[in-house]
Amino acid sequence: MVERRGAPLARDAMAYVLAGGRGSRLWELTDVRAKPAVYFGGKARIIDFALSNALNSGIRRIGVATQYKAHSLIRHLQRGWNFFRPERNESFDILPASQRMEEYGWYSGTADAVYQNLDVIESYAPEFMVILAGDHVYKMDYELMLQQHVDSGADVTVGCLEVPRMDATAFGVMHVDEADRIIAFFEKPADPPGIPAQPELALASMGIYVFRTSFLADLLRRDAANPESKHDFGGDIIPYVVEHGNAVAHRFAASCVRSELEQKAYWRDVGTIDAYWEANIDLTDVIPELDIYDRAWPLWTYSEITPPAKFVHDFEGRRGSAISSLVAGGCIISGSALHRSLIFTGVRAHSYSSISEAVVMPYCEIGRGAQLCKVVVDSHVKIPAGLIVGEDPVADAQRFHRTEQGVVLITQPMIDRLAV
After folding, report:
1. Where are the coiled-coil regions (predicted)?
2. Which of 29, 165, 346, 392 is most open to solvent, judged by the fewest CB atoms within 10 Å of its CB?
């Protein structure tokens, strides 16, 4: 990884997190919350990764644009991210879509979500803007990307992942020259361009962009005046700079943050139930690919005041136990067996129940004798006594939402329908 050097540029930067998306591929998990507000890792929300990266990078001005079903997200931000102090030249602004301009209401695109708040941004006068997606899981030092932006003289620097070339068909793809200058941009191409000297790989956009604020403001005003534009960074802003300016790719490997236990750069889009389940369950590995215990790069979040997790009863078949599992505070595992599961705050698991390869969100109750395998359970769900999920694929699909890979999503409305 590139070493930091000189005075930090992050102190002159503002991070702007785009957190308004629904994330419909997460099915019912986003019926009541935006994708960035979905729980992750036992205590956190997905958006906490982008916000923690900004804070750990040294950025002290942050704005979060919200839109779709934002109450859960806004409540989390107010509770967990309210420690910024204006007297230290710090700020944290939550920016819901609102009728801030005469002809505008909802944000019509990612670029419009920034444009509508230019007055807020310019009131702080940051020299640089770091535009972030709020729905990915990764650890990254944005200071290193800022340094490359200044050193290269770029108009925009685009964060990019190196991925197998044909895997890039689901991304925006950067076609670059030998110096990583972007010479063309393709949105979800059928035949992605390879990287010079690495033709088997392609550079996929991470939805992370660095601009000088003055340059970005001019771009956004020009784009807002264009009736043909969809007012989107990937669809409009970045292609315009590629054609008319100097756009440079920043490779994630150059600024990803890894502890001694992490062997390779980690980035995940947990935008499907399968991907979400897998990323959470992977945390139960002895040495997981993502180290959330890294104290040098902490994952900041709202931390509820809870008592320690409790395990009770010690009889054959009724033993409170957890193997290869993460259990958050406030949980009571009462004569229940956990295996390779991730249990969020305040879960109650009653006697003789069995929970395996499960992601159980906060304040659920697992009834006596229930058996759950390979499930994602939404928050505040009450699992009836004796319910069995994960043994009969046909029955699971009839009662709940089952993926092609066999992960079963359970929500309270689904449970309520069982009693009808």
Report:
1. none
2. 392
